[in-house]
Amino acid sequence: MRRREFLRTLTGVALPGAASAVRAPRGLKITDVRVVVTNPERSPMGNFVLVKIVTSEDGLYGWGDATCTGSELAVAKFIEEYMRPVLIGRDPMRLEDIWQTLFHHPYYRSGSVHMSALSGVDMALWDIKGKVAGLPVYELLGGRARTKLLTYTSVSGRDFREVEEGARRMIERGYKVLKVQVRAPGLESGYAVPPSERQRAATEKAHQAGVPPVETWEPDAYVRTIPKLFEHLRKTLGEEIELLHDVHERITPSQALWLARALEPFRPFFLEDPLRPEHADTFRLIRRQCSTPIAMGEIWTGQWDGLFLITEHLIDYVRHDLCHCGGITTGKKIATIAEPFGILTAWHGPSNISPIAQRANCHVSLSVPNFGIQECRTNWPDAAREVFSSAPTYSEGYVNIGDEPGLGIEIDEEAAAKYPYLRRYRPLIRRADDSAWAY
Question: What is the CATH number of the domain that holds 68?
Fold first, then answer.
């Protein structure tokens, strides 16, 4: 039964456009939980873990995204073996109760695998709730607080000139905020920058052998380079374009303080993830000695992680990934916690989460009062568009979504099956002396 026919059955009236509000059918139950792992791009970071929750009402189901790059099959197995038995027979409308049940059920709880699995289930339940109500999820969260979402895209290069040229192309497309990354001198690779041909070949060889590739990282050259990049871009691009940078937790607390202070004259939009979560207490060093805005959170796995960074106002943006922190339910709670402290949202929206999660991000961002900016991928290849019916749309520096009920996205399962899981591992980050380093 099509969605509109299903809603007409419940309400007894024809629905010419967007569905009217309806009551959930009596005795509605979860009858199945399915996991689809697909990689439409056939890329190392492109395995998506999708969750489908099926109900007792014909044609009523929901989709969620439980992607956790590097642990995809562990998350899929966790859902199938440990969450599905708990979910079968439950009322999908009791979303908060299900969230609490799934969180506490393992006893040894939290962590990226558990919380990614829970996130996917949570998104799928919100999708169902919106479809039953005949409303987009953002309406259930309080309605639109804005009509569109400021966004940014990443620009990287092997040198300053490449970054500048890429930035100019994105400015021509209307972007008002850019994340800029550059490869540091003497390094074969780095976070989100083009690797050397030698590194590229070594990475491909490791993938073919089924083992993690290895990248060498030295933070000193990197820390010295980034302020020079910002200086170059301010001179060549001017003051109007907003610039931000992602450290990706690859430096020490003292290096992070030095970098934040060195960037201060160039007025960055924010400095992202300057410290590892294990060093969270040292955010006080940065806050006490400079005014560079700080964003943090994509590696956190719940609303409790980093809580004191919010309550002590040691950061300016919360960067949780709704695929890892508990889904839409947790995202709304985190935004509410952050609001009284004047801290804004900047949900993690990289290319290695699916359009389902990208849309979930937008639903929360549209509805919260303390929205800051939304990272969002929009350049999906044809294969991904074959699997996913929609994704957020981009226009002149902003992204947006429509008013379809639920999350507003459907999955072609036959198309997804054409692009199965591709075994690829995140790189191992090593120092020049062959000691382990943070990713």
Answer: 3.30.390.10
d(CA 246, CA 260): 12
Q: The whole model's pTM is what?
A: 0.93
Same domain flag for 51 and 154: no
Catalytic residue, from 61, 191, 222, 394: name it: 191
Which residue's structure tokens are 């009236």?
Answer: 13
CB count in 10 Å sphere of residue 198:
10
pLDDT tens for residues 208-259? 999 999 999 999 999 999 999 999 999 999 999 999 999 999 999 999 999 9
Instruction: Tell me if residue 191 is catalytic.
Output: yes
- Does the annotation count 248 as an active-site position? yes
Catalytic residue among 114, 248, 320, 363: 248
Note the residue count of the chain: 439
Let me know: does 323 contact 67? Beta carbons within 8 Å.
yes
CATH number at residue 312: 3.20.20.120
DSSP per-residue codes, 363-419: HHHHH-TTB--EE------HHHHHHBS---EEETTEEE----SBT---B-HHHHHTS
